[in-house]
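Re: your question from the hallway

Yes, I did run it. Sequences:
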Amino acid sequence: MNGLDLWMRENPLTYVWLGSYAVALLIFMIEIAMVIHKRKITLQQVRLMREAQDEAGDDN
Amino acid sequence: MAINWFKYSAPTTFYGLAGKMIPWFAFSAAILFVIGLYIGFVVAPVDAQQGEFYRIIFIHVPSSILSMFLYLVMAGYAALGLIFNTRLSAMMASAIAPTGALFAFISLWTGALWGKPMWGAWWVWDARLTSELILLFLYLGFIALHASIDDPRRADRAAALLALVGSVNVPIIYFSVKWWNTLHQGSTIKFTGTSMHVAMQQAMFTVLVACWLYAIAVVLARVRSIILERERNTTWIGELPEVKQ
Amino acid sequence: MKQETITDMKPRQKRFVFIAVAVAALSLAVGLVLYALKNNVSLYFTPTQVYNKEAPQGRSFRIGGLVEEGSVQREKDGLTVKFVITDKHKSIPVIYKGILPDLFKEGKGVVAQGKVEADGMMHAEEVLAKHDENYMPPEAADALKKGETANASAAKATPASTPATSAVK
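Structure:
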């Protein structure tokens, strides 16, 4: 029985929390951050594209 | 003209509606997570056989259920998109895939962490674990296939086909523990009811609802970006306050 | 000229990479299916199947069942354990040297991997505990039993299973 096996049996709640719940919450946080980031980037791109189109329209 | 207007109307109204609903879903998801975890860790008793380790169930089972249901919802939207050629359904399918993949991953990850102390192994190639792993690969395959085709309409169709074919896997996951000898135990929640202790049930169902609300919030937020991206040339996008600024 | 072709290739290369990833993911998925099918999908054989010579001969495989009550014997070295896996019809003795999982108990589910040697014993390399799906006080046992019989009748419909599946919760 190695160290991890012993440790998880001595600290089952810490093991459950860190191993499962903290990881799951971290994954949720990362997903939320990615969704927010995507929203920001997409809005920026759409605005830039719109501006470029408007300028092209003014020139003509 | 009338047809065009109809085509654009679905994403148009949906975009605004989704934007209004996201905070509600997100907020209630957060609250229910806290309540569920409180019941799971404070109220629910220790399991007679498994001690504290069984508490992984409160995230493991909800994320497994979500990974399977989200796949069916995704395949449903994909089918709608294929049959009726509606834009929004294909966008919804693409928005669901990453969240489904994450839930499949959480399910596998928490399962491994549960398996090690209880079974004595992180992983075994039994039917339940293998089919859930295949589910994760189906999600990843859907995402990769969609990203590989430049024309979004063609990408939608190809990915939709994959999603539909892959949906066979979902009943296999569910029934694997009945059909074959597996190390994974049978379903705790059966169609005939459940034998689970009440507080444990409450914790699990609360987290399940929280996961559902979370998934809806994230998917709606993601589909809004997809709508923006794919409808960027339309007039209504140009008239949005966040685009105009 | 060369420069041009490279820039021409870029979206195509990108597409190719993504398609490669998709194909790899799919083939991995199919491969896993086939891998699982090859092993008969079921993770283990029951002692009855072993007696009926349905289990592979001369190579390592898994036996699943219950640890027979009163069969666990620990050797003097403190590591070697002998026990009997039963499915209530047939039983197979197992010898194992190593650490047993926490849930290894008499009357509880177990899956052992190893070879059945000439002495008729399985020399196990790995012993896993199989726990049941019940997280509950004993009052609910009746409700559980109903579900279990439903499970067993569903399992009997498939050839891969034997009556032992009902014994192994």
